[in-house]
């Protein structure tokens, strides 16, 4: 239908922003023209003029007109882009005979608003509609792939969608292929993603960005940087800001400052806009790699900063031990968000400022910022270090109230905290209540019992884990072998060690050899331990020799101890423990002069034995004490109880380590 002349004039006026005049023109016309309405709705969509668009929609309702696929799609797009998805879906549901255009409009609306589950449900309904007017096209597939990628639905489904793409001939569409590359990358199928990328006849910048970002996010940093070099070498397409950010992230994670500086130079030469995201990536790189002067210069030169800006520099300060600088910068940010609090708490714990970390999380709550799973996972190791069981229970209760205990990392941290605070029963309860037990949870509870020398429970849980179809990893084997070492369970330890590679495909590492040497040494089977060290495929580490030295100390084998210490003095000359053990060995054998020589050697290199200290929380607060402490008023009573406990330990079969060197402690 042709436009009446007055209406044409009014529609033309919309290009100059006179929407209201156009609406008045429509009111004066008694006929409905879909083309005119479509142009006006599109105009309102482009300029987000929701109120005027609703007037247009109301006029359609006034005419008692059911919108055609054309008009309905325009309205769906309008409501989707103005965050009125419920209204968009209402329009969609009222279309009597939907076509591909209207289905895609609704799919794109969901995709635009990151409503990925709704996208997949709608796609399923679209496929089931069985209408000749409905056929999937490249827009449909692109929306579906974006949803799948966001939901990480798995590589099997990715391949099914890929087959669908091939069957329907969409593989030649660059947008579809780019989406497939992104999806495969997020499913950790980088091989398939690269195959698609290499087979593309015509790549655009998005293609390169998708592949480079895929490598960067999956940890293939060398491949990420090499592909960036190839993009520059070919020269057909220039990297943009998104490309550079992905490459800088790879440089940060691989600690490659030199390449990162080359990328920075490229940014300057190419005059790529230094927006906040790009500046943050550069600050993060320089700060992590130790070039804090460059990071600070960029930081102070930014006219606009966000929370990531502060977090990047704070993380860099913390990583390099500049705790006070990090705290000053944190205080400079008047309204820190959750991620900034988390960076500070994590950094304080990493720098052994455990009390300060606890104070900060209390301050965080007082400011009305609720700790999340990241904050809890960061602070719990500090509580473990302080053996502050009360605080551990408080955070456990907080995590239960907020449903954070379902998070695998929080649950694991709580188990570790309880175990290190001596509350193994509590650790077991957390394990029992964990839903969907993964390898990390199993390893945590096995480690808990291992640290308490309970080999029976550790081995029982290890076997239960295997029966549940959970395959162990290197950390699990370290935990269970440590339990065997504490309890002297030699035969069981050999079975586990010998099965690592043949049964589970895990090559024993130096850590595992150290555990096994510890098992044999503590059980007095020193010749077997020495034989195992000789058969090691790699050079023995200080941990391996240290395990053998402990065995020599327990058995009183002075010559073996001297042999081992000669090697340890070369590997770790600053470890006072090795000197103390050797001096003790000589003293126990009555070789006093040699014991004095070891102590003199220790003094010459500037080493001094620092007494081991522990603390315990009682009703009177945190009590600290050191080895051989006699300062407490109830010393005699304490040592009587200690002797009784040592006797019970021996009866239970626990292996006691070497005794402390009283002279070195007192000196």
What does this structure look like?
This protein has 667 residues and is an all-alpha fold. The protein has a domain at 542-666: Serine Threonine Protein Phosphatase 5, Tetratricopeptide repeat, CATH 1.25.40.10. It has 38 helices and 2 strands. A hairpin with a 2-residue loop joins strand 1 (613-618) and strand 2 (621-626). The N and C termini lie far apart (104 Å). PPR repeats lie at residues 204-238, 275-309, 337-371, 438-472, 473-508, 575-609. This is Pentatricopeptide repeat-containing protein. It comes from Prunus armeniaca. GO terms for molecular function: RNA binding.
Secondary structure topology:
Layout: H1 5-14, H2 19-27, H3 34-46, H4 50-62, H5 69-81, H6 85-93, H7 100-112, H8 116-128, H9 138-151, H10 155-167, H11 174-186, H12 190-199, H13 205-218, H14 221-234, H15 241-253, H16 257-270, H17 276-288, H18 292-301, H19 307-319, H20 323-332, H21 338-350, H22 354-366, H23 373-386, H24 389-401, H25 408-420, H26 424-433, H27 439-451, H28 455-467, H29 474-487, H30 490-504, H31 510-522, H32 526-534, H33 542-555, H34 558-571, H35 576-588, H36 592-604, E1 613-618, E2 621-626, H37 635-651, H38 662-666
Antiparallel strand pairs: 1-2
Low-confidence stretches: 1-18, 657-667
The secondary-structure class comes to mainly alpha
Write down the CATH class of the domain at 542-666.
Mainly Alpha
Strand order of the largest sheet: 1-2
CATH architecture of the domain at 542-666: Alpha Horseshoe
Count the helices. How many?
38
Tell me what portion of residues adopts beta-strand conformation: under 5%
Broad shape? elongated
Q: Return Rg in Å.
A: 34 Å
N-to-C CA distance = 104 Å
Beta strands, count: 2
CATH topology-level fold name of the domain at 542-666: Serine Threonine Protein Phosphatase 5, Tetratricopeptide repeat
| Share of helical residues | over 70%
The largest sheet, given as strand count, sense and whether it forms a barrel, is: 2 strands, antiparallel
**Average pLDDT metric:** 85
Specify the CATH homologous superfamily of the domain at 542-666.
Answer: Tetratricopeptide repeat domain
């Amino acid at each position: 239908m042709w436009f009446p002349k007055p209406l044409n004039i009014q529609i033309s006026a919309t290009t100059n922003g006179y929407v209201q005049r156009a609406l008045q023109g429509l009111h004066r016309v008694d006929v409905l023209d879909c083309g005119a309405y479509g142009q006006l709705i599109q105009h309102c969509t482009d300029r987000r003029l929701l109120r005027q668009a609703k007037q247009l929609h109301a006029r359609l309702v006034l005419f008692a007109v059911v919108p055609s696929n054309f008009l309905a799609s325009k309205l769906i797009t309008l409501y989707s882009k103005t965050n009125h998805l419920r209204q968009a879906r209402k329009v969609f549901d009222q279309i009597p005979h939907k076509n591909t255009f209207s289905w895609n409009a609704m799919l794109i609306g969901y995709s635009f608003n990151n409503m990925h589950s709704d996208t997949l449900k709608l796609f399923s309904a679209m496929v089931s509609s069985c209408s000749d007017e409905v056929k999937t096209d490249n827009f449909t597939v692109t929306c579906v792939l974006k949803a799948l990628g966001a939901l990480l639905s798995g590589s099997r489904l990715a391949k099914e969608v890929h087959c669908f793409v091939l069957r329907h001939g969409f593989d030649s569409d660059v947008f579809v292929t780019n989406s497939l590359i992104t999806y495969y990358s997020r499913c950790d199928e980088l091989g398939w993603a690269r195959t698609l990328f290499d087979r593309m006849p015509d790549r655009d910048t998005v293609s390169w960005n998708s592949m480079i970002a895929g490598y960067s996010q999956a940890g293939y940093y060398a491949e990420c940087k090499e592909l960036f070099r190839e993009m520059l070498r070919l020269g057909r397409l220039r990297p943009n800001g998104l490309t550079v950010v992905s490459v800088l992230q790879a440089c940060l994670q691989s600690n490659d400052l030199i390449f990162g500086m080359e990328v920075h130079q490229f940014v300057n030469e190419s005059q790529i806009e230094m927006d906040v995201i790009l500046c943050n990536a550069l600050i993060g790189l320089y700060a992590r790699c130790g070039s804090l002067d460059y990071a600070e210069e960029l930081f102070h030169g930014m006219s606009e900063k966000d929370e990531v800006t502060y977090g990047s520099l704070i993380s860099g300060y913390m990583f390099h031990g500049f705790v006070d600088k990090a705290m000053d910068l944190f205080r400079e940010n008047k309204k820190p968000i959750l991620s900034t609090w988390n960076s500070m708490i994590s950094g304080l714990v990493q720098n052994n400022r455990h009390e300060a970390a606890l104070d900060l999380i209390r301050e965080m709550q007082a400011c009305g910022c609720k700790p999340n799973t990241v904050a809890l996972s960061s602070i719990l190791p500090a509580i473990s270090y302080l053996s502050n069981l009360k605080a551990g229970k408080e955070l456990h209760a907080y995590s239960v109230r907020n449903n954070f205990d379902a998070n695998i990392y929080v649950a694991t941290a709580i188990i570790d905290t309880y175990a290190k605070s001596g509350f193994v029963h509590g650790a077991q309860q957390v394990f029992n209540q964990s839903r969907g037990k993964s390898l990390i949870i199993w390893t945590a509870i096995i480690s808990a019992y291992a640290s308490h020398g309970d080999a029976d429970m550790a081995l029982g849980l290890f076997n239960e884990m295997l029966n549940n179809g959970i395959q162990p990893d290197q950390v699990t084997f370290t935990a269970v072998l440590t339990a065997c070492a504490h309890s002297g369970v030699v035969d069981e330890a050999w079975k586990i060690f010998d099965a690592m590679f043949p049964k589970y495909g895990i090559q024993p590492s130096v850590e595992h050899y150290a555990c096994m040497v510890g098992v044999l040494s503590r059980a007095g089977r020193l010749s077997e331990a020495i034989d195992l060290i000789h058969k090691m495929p790699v050079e023995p580490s200080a941990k391996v020799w240290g395990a053998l030295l402990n065995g020599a100390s327990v058995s009183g084998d002075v010559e073996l101890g001297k042999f081992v210490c000669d090697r340890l003095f070369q590997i770790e000359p600053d470890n006072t423990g090795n000197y103390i053990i050797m001096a003790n060995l000589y003293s126990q054998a009555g070789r006093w002069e040699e014991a004095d020589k070891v102590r003199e050697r220790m003094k010459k290199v500037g080493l001094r034995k620092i007494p081991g200290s522990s603390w315990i929380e009682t009703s009177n607060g945190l009590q600290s004490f050191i080895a051989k402490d006699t300062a407490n008023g109830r010393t005699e009573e304490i040592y009587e109880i200690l002797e009784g406990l040592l006797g019970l330990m021996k009866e239970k079969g626990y292996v006691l380590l070497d005794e402390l060197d009283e002279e070195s402690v007192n000196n």
